Amino acid sequence: MTPKLADIWVYLSATPLLGLTVTLLVYQGAFWIYRRANFHPLLNPVALSVAALVLILTLTATPYATYFDGAQFVHFLLGPATVALAIPLYAQFDKLKRAFVPLLGALLIGSATAISTAVGIAWLLGASKITLISISPKSVTAPIAMGIVEKIGGLPSLTAVLVVSTGILGAALAKYVLDFLRITDHSVRGFSVGVAAHGIGTARAFQVSEEAGAFAGLAMGLNGLATALLFPLLFWLVSRFA
Amino acid sequence: MLGALTILLVFQLLGEVIAHGLELPIPGPVIGFALLFLTLLACGGIAEDLRTTATSLLQHLSLLFVPAGVGVMVHLPRLRDEWLPISVALLVSTVLTIACTALTMRWLIRVFSKNTAP
Fold this sequence. Notes:
The structure holds two protein chains of two kinds.
Chain A: H1 3-12, H2 16-36, H3 45-59, H4 64-76, H5 78-84, H6 86-91, H7 93-98, H8 100-124, H9 129-135, H10 142-152, H11 156-180, H12 186-208, H13 210-241
Helix pairs in contact in A: 2-3, 2-4, 8-9, 8-12, 8-13, 10-11, 10-13, 11-12, 12-13
Chain B: H1 2-21, H2 28-43, H3 48-59, H4 66-70, H5 76-81, H6 83-116
């Protein structure tokens, strides 16, 4: 780099502008690839973006904290977006009323499966205690999962990564699992993706259909609520007997 | 769009105030989501402005997870040490969760539609 370019780089890498702009550029590039591939579930735009950004940050020796100074403006929008989920949910309210008991039953079974199998499998394969705690709410939307883990002594930032990985896996694999089980109803498909893969699954469901998206958003909200309420109780029980 | 964005932020703020005021373990945005849903039910409709803003925000919901996902670079040493339990647990648990939720819901829908059928 010439001295002048180096000066510009030093200046820019200290402002939030760069982190924010790079995030938007990379995401739009990833989304372009995803759309060109006809929304193939395995080319998830979150996975592509994260991989590209980690590569860019590593190559430019930029610490994550510096990057996040800019990216936090995108991260912040998770809050209003969570609130905005009320709107598609309201649009599907009639369908929701009719399926109230099936939704509640599926939520409880799904939520219990998510927590118990994640912790159980990781424990069997010898994960450390802090990883076990951090992985337990992996199917819950990131802000809730991080809040829970912070309260019970895990690593919130590790949880964020595990939550996003779960979302990517869920969004990528749901089509294959649901096709294999011959589940055709879009409300069932959306709801199960929302319980297992929170917002990233919901984003994927919205790309498939408005109905699937609304039920996924509902599932994500309900699973967040249920886990936030039940988890401290569950953890107390387990720590008494384990 | 400005009005709709303000509505979303006001509900999020209300949620945060309630969550912290009552020391609830639920994050503020989730309470805001529940409050907005109840408000829409009470009003019996959605303003066009709110609908279009929400739709465009939710269309790119996956973008909002990217900054948290990039945090993976901070945890690479731990992920290297425990890659097997973490990857198997995430993969198997996610597939099982999707399958169990979908099968339970489909089964309950069948049971209930049978009971209410004339």
